[in-house]
Amino acid sequence: QVHLVESGGGLVQAGGSLTLFCAASENIFRTAFIGWYRQAPGKERDLVATMTSGGTTNYADDVKGRFTISRDNAKNMMSLQMNSLKAEDTAIYYCNTVALGRVSWGQGTQVTVSS
User: Fold this and answer.
1) Confidence of residue 1 (pLDDT cuts 50, 70, 90)
2) What is the dihedral of CA 68, 95, 71, 3, to 10 degrees?
3) Cα 20–5–13 angle (5° rounding)?
4) Could you say which of 69, 73, 74, 106 is the most buried, measured as most Cβ atoms within 10 Å of its Cβ?
């Protein structure tokens, strides 16, 4: 399993922006399928955004136009730029990679949006 470490979460007012980062312990992003997921209290973990190794992205309907997934292969890092945040975006956010036959998850980072 690849070790993933997230950062960048925090408290922000509605309408504000945050960028989440996820650093990997191995150079995997060039061939990895990557994604961000989130889990709100009392709810299941849901997909937020994904990106294939070829760069094709997919977003949940409720974040389209507001969130952007990206990766930096040279730095072994992926990120999630979140704009126009809403109270309903409050959740623990997890990064995920599928590479070399291994599925890995970060430990999660809390994002809280105050209304």
Assistant:
1) confident
2) 170
3) 25
4) 106
Query: How many whole angstroms separate alpha carbon 83 and alpha carbon 49?
Result: 14
How do 10-13 and 67-72 pair as beta strands? Answer: unpaired
Judge whether residue 103 has pLDDT over 90. Answer: yes
Position 100 confidence tier, pLDDT thresholds 50, 70, 90: confident
DSSP type of residue 100: T
Pick from 3, 27, 26, 33: nearest CA to 97: 33
Q: How far is CA 20 from CA 35, 81, 95, 100, in A?
A: 12, 6, 9, 24
What are the tokens at 16? 């504000």
Whether 59 shows a pLDDT value over 90: the answer reads: yes
